[in-house]
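Continued from yesterday's entry.
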Amino acid sequence: MYTLIDGKKVSSDIKLEIAEEVKKFKKETGKVPHLAAVLVGNDGASETYVSHKVKACEQVGFKSTLIRMEESVSEKELLDKVGELNGDKGIDGFIVQLPLPDHISEDKVIEAVDPEKDVDGFNPVNLGKMTIGLPSFVPATPSGIMELIKRYNIETSGKNCVVIGRSNIVGRPVSILLSKKGVDATVTLVHSRTKNLEEIVRRAEIIIAAIGIPEFVKADMVSEGTVIIDVGTTRVKSDKTKSGWKLKGDVDFDNVAPKCSYITPVPGGVGPMTIVSLLQNTLKACKQKY
């Protein structure tokens, strides 16, 4: 029988911990952490994420600011806004919600964010520091994954871990965090061009599925007793939900779960952890300033 890794519960526990820290910090300094989010256009998934982030800020006693920009905004206008936020002393950390419209370079925008306010942890300065083990803002989703593994006391030392997907936001950073001293997993990173992918995944004791293809990981790719962290959140059409959409993970949950020792659900697994990691980074940014 598998154990369901409950990201909702863990994130609620962490929010209570953050709220306590915020109270204490406010008492000592009179300051309250302030997170800003820039949302370009009207992407449905991005709207949902940002509204969750704003709500989470309220729950822990943060200030939050949402800056909306039209889909047609020019790259220069967006970069000017980033520059303005970099210089705003009242804002401790901010994010520019991805994806951005095609005419804007995501790399340019990420590089323009002040590393000390980069609570998403995407700026190359933070990624570089994380890679060599220096203090930095760790990208929110990988940070949330590591927190789940820690809080469920999942043994990682010497374990054969396979990360599926090589994005700069999840796959690559989490592969680095898992191989760090003290975590000590043996990590293989596979992707769409990997030969014998299924065979490699089958040998894994821990699988991080972050490829963005719904139900990519099938039961015959998983060995008995495997730990699975499913990062996938693809919106697929559904006539069974009010919104007409439902979230699907990268793992064929119903058929794979019975073979697992631990598995995250979608939704309710990694998603809530991404948001609390962002809050943790914002609190850290605020404390570093004062």
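--- second protein ---
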Amino acid sequence: MLVLAIVGAVWPAVPEVSAALLAWVALALLWPGIGRRQQLQALVFVAAGVAALLWGASRGAPLHIDSLLGQNQPILSMLASITLLRLLNRPPRTDDPELPRGLGAYLQSMLGVHAFGSVINISAVIIMCDRLTRMRPLGFDQAQLFSRAFSAVAFYSPFIGGVALALSYTPGSSPLVMMLFGLPLAAAAFLLLYWFARRSRDEDVGGFRGYPLHPQDLKVPLALGAGVLIASVAMPGYSVLALITMVTPAVVVGVLLKRSGLRGLRPALAEYVRERAPQMGGELALFLGAGVLAAGVVAAAGAGDWTILPRLDAFHASLLVLACIVTSLVCVHPAVLVGVTVALVETIEVDPTLLATAFAMGWGLGCAVNPLSGVNVVLATRYGADNWRIARSNTAYSASLFVVAVGLLYLYEYTRL
């Protein structure tokens, strides 16, 4: 899947659905090792998605097999690529420096995952969590912070799928203006997280183990971030997910060659094929199942002659953000609502920048409370965190930021007038 995704990105002759088909083959091979709860979730999503797709098809909606099979294949290829970074993790040693603790470590981790995530996407979460879990499992407080801080990147960063999708679905929108209204919401998220930390018991914050922002721990994320930025300038036609998928293997191979030469490269790649990649069974199940569900919901929504908004102003944009949060609570990814909304607002005149800004805000706030958002699924499948508990605990966080988002949308409308 990973190889075909990379080859297909640079060679259009390779069918897009080929990597997706191999993703399903991989899921079939790894299915026996997936937990029963994840198996049940995936089966429910597939069944609901197929039912919605058939209902839509019976009413004239077109069938898009590539979307049905490969809705989330790009992010799965990116995750498979990012898994290579684990080959760079040195075994834990007794003389490893102790992880920083306390409020300072909390703030460093919050700003670090956000800053790196704004460039290298969810790979920032994986890099930091891999470092934190060398000696002990990831704590709930750590998983909760990473979920919140990373989701806030979606308010403005064009390197996040939600923002890229919002801009691509709204021709004529201004990325700069969207960022100007998304950045204050991200700043509000930082202040809220800081307040949450100060409000909690002193021993909770005092014992927080954070990511060490030392030069030796920043080499890999800095190298990957620089590679993605350079590649995005040199190859502007590629999505950020595709660039990360292509750049990460080059970074990993380069570091391994520098460390141990060709003699050490072969066993490292063999470890990836035999041990690391097969650990993705849970991610394959949830992302592929959620993709089928999303494709079915979009087909069902497009089958009716419906309208979702009579017009688009600050009030209705706020309702759209609220809808992203509410539907995320019941495991519907914001991507589904974005696709449905775009299909149903074609009959009205909209401000594309306002629509894109509402999409980005809804994406970030919705992903925080969605148990099946990318970051929460990764925290669950890779590090054993309870994605349902994380999502429930983020409800008050997203609700508080929703008030700020509404204020910013009304400010946009006022300044535009």
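The chain has one domain: 30-416. Residues 30-416 form one domain. Will compare against the first tomorrow.
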